[in-house]
Amino acid sequence: MFSLNQSRKEEEILFFEKVTKLCQDKNISIAKLARECEMGNGTVRGWKTSSPSIENLKKVANYFGVSIEYFLKE
Length: 74
Prior knowledge:
Structural class: mainly alpha
Order of helices and strands: HHHH
Radius of gyration: 12 Å
């Protein structure tokens, strides 16, 4: 049986993996991304288990020049 909680966790991991890949492609660390987007230390790593705020999602999308939808689709 597939639960809503399981689905949400998979979405959060997928989101974190997309951010990680973008960082690798740009050759920056997750910590540098957080600093340059004026987010707290550990904020991005926290997305392994929780969803980002809309504000932080916008910051990251703008930083990488991608749409918010990029992070929301599989």
